[in-house]
Automatic annotation (TrEMBL):
InterPro entries: DhaK_L_YcgS, DhaL_dom, DhaL_dom_sf, Dihydroxyacetone_Kinase
UniProt key word Transferase: yes
Lineage: Bacteria, Thermotogati, Synergistota, Synergistia, Synergistales
Keyword Transferase: yes
Protein name according to UniProt: Dihydroxyacetone kinase DhaL subunit
GO molecular function, one term: kinase activity
PROSITE patterns the record matches: DHAL
Classification via NCBIfam families: dha_L_ycgS
Ranges for domain DhaL: 7-207
Organism of this sequence: Acetomicrobium flavidum
UniProt xrefs under SMART domains: Dak2 (SM01120)
Domain of life: Bacteria
Gene3D superfamilies, per database record: 1.25.40.340
Length: 211
């Protein structure tokens, strides 16, 4: 049964940087429809800096990797998403502090704490057309899989499927948080950029763990 370890945590950061860069224009296009056309640029800048930081360090535990990601996102990414993802990784890193390995149960707990941090900061509820709509069903799937005693990879695979569904389900929604909410009803019919980046981040995590 595979675990997340420090090497894989670093690979996660590499994969996130790569997948965000590959989807930079796409994320910016989504944000141009209902926001200010900077989500791809913000995310790419943040994860480029995060990877630089992580590559230049040695780590003894998984928490420390995600803590560096969190601090970098908070300090380099402006707008809504920087502090929100920064908080996600910070809260997750606190749960993973001192851990050399994480199994599905611990990873689900860490991501649950991360999501709670996002909700505490951004006050978005499910259905408000934000990253919360992709993260919530994904983390619920992780928790359900952990409860069933499934392997880490299987849990992540299910979480990715649910994140994708949550992302697509944002299309008809009317935004109630963030810039897109300024559009009111006109925000309907567009996929949320932040829900999309959350799906991509989870996809990168899956790939780093061989899912
Ligand atoms: P900005 O809107 O400040 O330009 P970004 O474009 O980088 O920031 O990020 C926009 C994304 O942030 C949205 O698509 C949405 O998913 C997410 N977001 C915005 N406000 C909130 C919030 N209050 N709670 C959760 N997510 C939010
Ligand atoms: Mg924006
Ligand atoms: Mg902006």
């Amino acid at each position: 049964n595979e675990h997340l370890d420090v090497t894989k945590a670093v690979a996660i950061v590499e994969n996130i940087k790569e997948i965000i860069d590959a989807n930079k224009e796409f994320l910016t296009k989504l944000d141009s429809a209902i926001g200010d056309a900077d989500h791809g640029i913000n995310m790419s800048r943040g994860f480029t800096k995060a990877l630089e930081k992580v590559r230049n360090n040695q780590y003894n535990d998984i928490g420390a990797v995600f803590k560096d990601v969190a601090m970098t996102l908070m300090s380099t990414v402006g707008g809504a998403a920087g502090p929100l993802y920064g908080t996600f990784f910070m809260r997750a890193s606190m749960k993973l502090a001192g851990q050399k390995e994480a199994d599905l149960t611990l990873l689900a707990q860490a991501f649950r704490e991360g999501l709670q941090g996002v909700v505490a900061l951004g006050k978005a509820q499910l259905g408000d057309k934000t990253m919360v709509d992709a993260l919530t069903p994904a983390i619920e799937a992780l928790e359900a899989a952990a409860k069933q005693g499934l392997p880490l990879k299987e849990g992540l695979k299910r979480a990715l499927d649910m994140a994708e569904k949550g992302m697509k389900d944002t299309i008809p929604l009317v935004a109630r948080k963030g810039r897109a909410s300024y559009l009111g009803e006109r925000s309907a019919g567009h996929q949320d950029p932040g829900a999309t980046s959350s799906y991509l981040i989870l996809k990168a995590i899956c790939e780093a763990l061989g899912v």
